[in-house]
Write a structure and sequence with these properties.
This protein is mainly alpha-helical. The chain is about 80% helix and about 0% strand. The radius of gyration is 27 Å and the shape is elongated.
């Protein structure tokens, strides 16, 4: 009886290891798909601004060195509404 229980536990361990390996492969594949999609989106954005390779390199170099900056997003509308509501409540 003890061997039967031990055998069952060992089979369960092997099944679990196999499932883990399968899930790790699936995770690796999904991560690769994500990188591919991110790269495709980057290429699409670059093509949308109609810059050739030299112009894109110059732009990125200028941005990296701080010669140019990108506009900062404004506070989101939700926090603005909360601030207005709070001020109305205070007065």
């Amino acid at each position: 009886m003890a061997n039967t229980k031990l055998d069952r536990i060992e089979r369960d361990i092997e099944k679990t290891r196999a499932k883990i390996l399968e899930q790790q492969k699936k995770l690796k594949d999904l991560e690769a798909q994500k990188v591919e999609e991110e790269n495709a989106q980057i290429v699409q954005m670059v093509k949308a601004v109609h810059l050739d390779g030299t112009q894109l390199a110059a732009f990125l170099s200028a941005y990296a060195s701080g010669e140019i900056t990108l506009p900062q997003p404004e506070a989101d509308w939700c926090s603005s509404i909360l601030n207005i509501s709070y001020l109305k409540w205070m007065y």
